[in-house]
Design a protein that fits this description.
Order of helices and strands: HEEEEEEEHEEEE
Shape: globular
Number of strands: 11
Strand content: 35-45%
Distance between the termini: 17 Å
Number of helices: 2
């Protein structure tokens, strides 16, 4: 896929993601060039997004941004989506998560979780952190530092009243090997 290698500190990684594909809150560090990320459309991925047929991202070697994922809505199977990817040993600033912009009509955040095989290794509630300021969060992220090289399943879900009429906005999946 030819993904460029990210070599910057965590703040710069977030800054480069903002430059590369949108509205992620930068931390004030100098952003890298947009060419340091590979950008693909969510609709171009193979798979249905279900647990048994996740959307396939391939091997992530630098920064991958998957743009324009449809909102997560109420009821099964619409309140969650799954992506599968392989990675080498992540850097100290490596992250995976979702970037979004909440609106008055789409005010439920996208929450990521990460599994290796049958084991959940990172959850939004235990390991996740926000970007943006409450109530206008712009992303929810999981650190990848400390994980082994291998294949991982990134699940995203709508936690706010999963069966009610709340919806997430469209979102982007971002995986940066930091």
């Amino acid at each position: 896929m030819g993904i460029a290698r990210a070599r910057r500190a965590f703040g710069t990684v977030l800054g480069s993601l903002a430059l590369a594909a949108g509205s992620l809150a930068a931390t004030g560090a100098q952003p890298a060039h947009a060419s340091s990320a590979t950008v693909v459309g969510c609709g171009s991925l193979y798979g249905s997004g279900s647990y048994s047929d996740p959307l396939r991202l391939g091997t992530v070697r630098g920064t991958l941004i998957v743009t324009g994922c449809a909102p997560l809505t109420s009821g099964t199977p619409y309140n969650h989506r799954y992506f599968i990817f392989a990675m080498g040993t992540p850097g100290s600033n490596a992250v995976a998560g979702a970037r979004f912009r909440l609106t008055s009509s789409q005010n439920a955040a996208v929450h990521p979780r990460l599994a290796s095989g049958a084991w959940t290794v990172r959850t939004s509630s235990s390991h996740g952190f926000w970007t943006g300021d409450s109530p206008n969060f712009t992303g929810r992220w999981l650190p990848l530092r400390g994980l082994s090289a291998g294949t991982y399943r990134l699940g995203v879900e709508k936690l706010r009243s999963p069966l009610s009429s709340y919806s997430t906005p469209r979102f982007d999946i971002v995986i940066s090997m930091g």
